[in-house]
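[Discussion] Sanity-checking designs against the backbone

I'm trying to build intuition for which residues belong where. Below is a structure token string of 763 positions. I'd appreciate it if someone posts a full sequence so I can compare it with mine line by line.
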């Protein structure tokens, strides 16, 4: 089995399956994303989420509130479907190609993650018995981010005649909406308008502008045929249609090449000129040359990112699929981040959440830390919006990052499970701290990272208060969105404590290194640092001595436990079937909350408390969020409950490929894909990033014969291989490192072989 190859028999008349495939085989590169819609389209009675997107490109949309209370969000940003350049209709001697007529002899789709392309292969017999083989290859370039290509090859199998391609470039597009699903937009709205349509030297160009955000985008398309042909360009008010007609002989292959360049006004001062410049650069290369660049890029990517599992081919392929999607989803510049659905669809309207910091950055931090630097820089760039958001929420100091956003302003209209999730500040601070621990990039921390840390720390002081010798934080919501607006959410308080501690550490470090410009810039006083220190030391972390667990919040254990036994399966996810207040009154968790805190800040509690908390919350967690099972897998590994760890891991790994949450048609679950990586490396590998270095505690699941992965740490790359009864650590490059394995320190100079702990490889 080729772990880099995902292939299916594609032809289906089931509409839901077609939309699922649109997601699974989408093309993206972190800047642009294109859903895998049929080039020829579908019959009129079929639904399709037909979309092309740019990461960070948005329009404003109205969000009416039933009651206009102060600070309620009434305008949000939404990702925009910007243009449609996918369309290619094929006519064979006047007969239009469609999988929904004639005879489909073969139809398959392939994603090649080594080459960075998707492919449709079709053998079709027309109603008049003309037989053609069609191979359509798509690519979103990783080396020229604004470039998307379609390579459309037609082979005449049993005839000679005329072949005509009709390539469309359509600016009149709209976003998908579904009023019955809160995870996508509820209304249809015209977010983008065509300003100009023209053709210059064979390149069609559409200039468009958003309705409210005043952003512009330029799409340029060029069509090239492999042989002499008749070409006609039809320019309309909102679109351009290019007809290319030629003859084809029996057994001859004709290649039709379609290049698309997308440039936006966020990144380019003159996007039209830039689009033409890049089009010229792209078309001066052959497809073979472009494919070679793509494969070279991915060879380098997989050298660092590979996670190999021996003993389960299906699972191994799912892991590679997830790691590839992370690369397709992550923004490659300071203007963008990672949307909840990547660039594969319009679920959650392209918004960025805490998912990035807690589920996606851990992967890139250990494989491509420069990407994490970009992601943190994005948060730095929206820091002023976070300061303004803090003021709206009643704070006099500090910054409060928006729960969901694109350009920096809060997009959540339902504050109990949105703006009340103050832990977003702790999550972002946590990511800054981990970036420093892995890279030791003090210059970046001093210039940008620490300002985030200080302003989020200020926010905790303004939010919380000292009471009877404890620092408490009231009326916030933790990760669990079935329990909202509570006092002293354990996860939130633990992250706040971590944030405050490190604000003090960085203040002292920067003073010692004479890197105090940010301290002076924001007017941070020594008295504030003393308050940070006191609040961290006196942070109240809920604890029930009798049960030896950390309650999720002050009131959680006093609530009635949800009646799981009598809840029908078709009532899940609960958020779609029960009023929020009804959920809030019960002990029921949508996802890992306290259990997540026990993973990322495991040293805050004893092992017995972690074990008891895990057992307690496991019984009342529905895992209605895709962010949940991977965390339960990691903590189960920590507790050496490897049977549970493996079960949770399997659910996480195959979520999208098997559409287990039944909404992959709206886009992939990007954070879960990062969590899937963590379940191996942080779970079975036992990796933890701590102030004194990297800690490992490997275990080998019984169903595997072995697994391996690489991690970047400071200037070095470490290869970890678990096989048989041993774990091997090899220093592939860089300086010697001290690492910890099962709590014992080792000096890694070349290679180190350590026996697996007794029973650690038994399920």
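Best answer:
Here's mine. Compare freely.
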């Amino acid at each position: 089995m080729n772990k880099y190859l995902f292939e299916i028999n594609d032809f289906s008349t089931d509409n839901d399956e077609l939309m699922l495939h649109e997601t699974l085989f989408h093309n993206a590169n972190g800047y642009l994303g294109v859903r895998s819609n049929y080039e020829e389209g579908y019959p009129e009675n079929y639904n399709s989420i037909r979309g092309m997107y740019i990461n960070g490109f948005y329009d404003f949309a109205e969000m009416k509130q039933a009651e206009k209370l102060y600070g309620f969000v009434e305008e949000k940003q939404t990702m925009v479907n910007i243009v449609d350049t996918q369309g290619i209709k094929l006519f064979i001697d006047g007969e239009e190609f469609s999988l929904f007529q004639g005879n489909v002899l073969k139809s398959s789709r392939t994603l090649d993650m080594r080459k960075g392309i998707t492919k449709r292969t079709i053998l079709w017999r027309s109603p008049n018995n003309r037989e053609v083989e069609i191979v359509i290859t798509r690519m979103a370039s990783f080396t020229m981010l604004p470039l998307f290509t379609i390579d459309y090859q037609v082979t005449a199998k049993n005839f000679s005649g005329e072949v005509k391609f009709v390539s469309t470039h359509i600016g009149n597009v709209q976003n998908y909406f579904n009023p019955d699903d809160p995870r996508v937009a509820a209304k249809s709205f015209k977010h983008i308008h065509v300003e100009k349509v023209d053709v210059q030297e064979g390149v069609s160009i559409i200039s468009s502008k958003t309705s409210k955000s005043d952003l512009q985008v330029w799409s340029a398309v060029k069509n090239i045929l492999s042989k002499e042909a008749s070409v006609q360009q039809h320019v309309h008010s909102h679109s351009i249609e290019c007809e290319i007609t030629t003859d084809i002989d029996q057994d001859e292959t004709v290649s039709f090449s379609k290049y698309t360049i997308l440039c936006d006004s966020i990144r380019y001062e003159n996007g039209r000129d830039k689009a033409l410049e890049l089009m010229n650069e792209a078309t001066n290369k052959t497809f073979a040359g472009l494919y070679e660049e793509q494969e070279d890029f991915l060879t380098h990517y997989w050298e660092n990112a590979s996670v190999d599992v021996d003993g389960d081919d299906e699972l191994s392929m799912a892991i590679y699929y997830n790691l590839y999607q992370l690369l397709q989803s992550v923004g490659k510049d300071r203007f963008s981040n990672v949307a909840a659905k990547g660039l594969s669809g319009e679920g959650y309207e392209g918004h960025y959440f805490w998912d990035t910091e807690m589920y996606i950055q851990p992967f890139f931090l250990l494989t491509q830390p420069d990407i994490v630097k970009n992601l943190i820089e994005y948060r730095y760039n929206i820091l002023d919006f976070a300061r303004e958001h803090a003021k709206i929420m009643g704070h006099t100091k500090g910054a409060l990052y928006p729960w969901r956003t694109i350009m920096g302003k809060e997009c959540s209209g339902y504050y109990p499970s949105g703006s009340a999730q103050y832990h977003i500040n702790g999550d972002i601070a946590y990511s800054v701290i981990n970036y420093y621990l892995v890279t030791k990039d003090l210059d970046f921390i001093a210039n940008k990272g620490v300002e985030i840390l200080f302003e989020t720390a200020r926010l905790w002081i303004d939010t919380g208060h000292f009471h009877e010798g404890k620092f408490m934080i009231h009326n916030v919501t933790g990760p669990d969105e079935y329990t909202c607006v509570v006092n002293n959410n354990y996860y939130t308080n633990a992250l706040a404590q971590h944030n405050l501690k490190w604000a003090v550490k960085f203040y002292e470090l920067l003073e010692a290194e004479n890197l105090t410009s940010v301290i002076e810039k924001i007017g941070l006083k020594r008295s504030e640092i003393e308050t940070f220190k006191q609040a961290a030391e006196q942070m109240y972390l809920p604890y029930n001595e009798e049960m030896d667990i950390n309650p999720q919040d002050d009131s959680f254990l006093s609530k009635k436990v949800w009646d799981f036994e009598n809840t029908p399966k078709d009532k899940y996810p609960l958020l779609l079937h029960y009023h929020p207040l009804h959920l809030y009154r019960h002990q029921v968790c949508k996802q890992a909350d306290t259990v997540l805190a026990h993973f990322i800040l495991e040293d805050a509690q004893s092992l017995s408390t972690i074990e008891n908390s895990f057992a307690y919350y496991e019984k009342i967690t529905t895992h209605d969020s895709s962010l949940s099972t991977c965390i339960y897998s990691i903590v189960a590994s920590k507790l050496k409950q490897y049977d549970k760890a493996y079960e949770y891991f399997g659910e996480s790994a195959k979520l999208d490929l098997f559409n287990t949450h039944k909404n992959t048609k709206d886009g992939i679950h990007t954070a879960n894909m990062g969590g899937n990586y963590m379940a191996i490396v942080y779970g079975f590998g036992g990796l933890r990033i701590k102030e004194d270095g990297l800690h490992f505690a490997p275990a080998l699941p019984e169903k595997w014969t072995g697994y391996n992965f690489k991690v970047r740490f400071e200037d070095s790359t470490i290869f970890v291989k678990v096989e048989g009864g041993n774990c091997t650590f090899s220093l592939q490059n860089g300086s010697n490192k001290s690492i910890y394995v099962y709590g014992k320190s080792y000096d890694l100079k070349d290679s180190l072989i350590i026996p697996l702990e007794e029973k650690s490889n038994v399920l």
